[in-house]
Amino acid sequence: MTELSSKLESLENILSDMQSVLIAYSGGTDSTFLLKIATTVLGDKAVAVTASSETYTPQELREAKKNAEVIGAKHIIVYTDELNDPNFSSNPPDRCYYCKKELFTKLTGLLARHGLNSIIDGSTCDDERDFRPGMRAVAEFGVRSPLKEAGFTKEDIRKLSKEMNLPTWDKPPLPCLSTRFPYGTQITKEKVLRVGRAEEFLAGFGIRQLRVRDHGSIARIEVLRADMPIFLDEEISNLIVEKFKALGYAYVSLDIQGYRMGSMNEPLKEEG
Question: CA-to-CA distance for 186 and 191, rounded, in angstroms?
Fold first, then answer.
């Protein structure tokens, strides 16, 4: 037995022992893989729940619905209102804790209603390497992370997802739009909608991995280095500037460091 097949068997055993689960399902690579395995093992005793709010793009919700349907899983949508929580909207470094607390409070209310035993999420071993304040809420609400328990990394999940023909096997990570703002900057519905529209516009040029970091009047664009030549095309760059200024940005910049996950956490590491 290979290491990967051993991990998969361990995951299946963990889920089987749990008997029934409510899955915090974002529609990303990890949670889609988890939903696929949970549905295979538990059938209708595995229920996916996706949060809908202004901090998530409509495209993400559409893809989550579509993929859950393809898998054949029961799928529930819940509305979360984290932007109305000052602890979240004031954007402190532990902002994600309050978002997860809002989500898990909603999911806890669904457990008894649907006769399910446990809430699970798609956290993996890789999540331990970054600043993840939301994990505090995971612990407080007793949420289990079967992928992490079985020793799965993101690379493991992408490999198996590809073998299973899951459409998310090479999907770029896409955290909520609140991650686009420097800590301490007030987050509003208007601001997250603006960032979402800016990123949607850039994606129209075939750029898959990107972030628009919002620094007030300045939009700082992060893309992979391979995509940077797109911005050197005069016609395209003029269209981008025109669109971003129409959205309210006074300046549009391209970060020559390129895309990197968690760039808004870099000042925290420097302070540490």
Answer: 9
φ, ψ of residue 122 to 5 degrees: the values are -95, 20
Starting at the earlier edge strand, list the strands of the sheet with 46-52: 74-79, 46-52, 21-24, 118-120
- Terminal-to-terminal C-alpha distance of the chain: 43
Which residues does residue 74 pair with via DSSP β-bridges, in sequence order? 47
Q: What is the mean pLDDT of residues 122-140?
A: 84
DSSP 127: G
- Please state whether beta strands 210-215 and 218-223 pair in parallel, antiparallel, or not at all (unpaired): antiparallel
Say whether pLDDT at 248 is over 90. Answer: yes
CA dist 43 and 49 (Å) reads: 15
Q: Alpha helix locations (H) across the chain?
A: 3-18, 29-42, 58-71, 86-89, 95-113, 135-140, 146-149, 154-163, 189-203, 234-246, 266-271
Closest CA to 48 of 70, 31, 30: 31
Question: Looking at residues 249-272, what average pLDDT do you find?
Answer: 78
CB-neighbour burial class of residue 39 (10 A; exposed 0-12, middle 13-18, buried 19+)? buried
- 55 in Cβ contact with 192 (< 8 Å): yes
* SS3 state at 140: helix
**Residue 37: closest CA among 26, 50, 27, 46:** 46
Q: Is the dihedral of CA 255, 256, 259, 261 positive or negative?
A: negative
CB 175 within 8 Å of CB 55? no
Q: Give the C-alpha separation, 29 to 201, whole Å.
A: 23
Q: What is the mean pLDDT of the chain?
A: 93
pTM for the full model? 0.91
Say if CB 41 and CB 73 are below 8 A apart: no
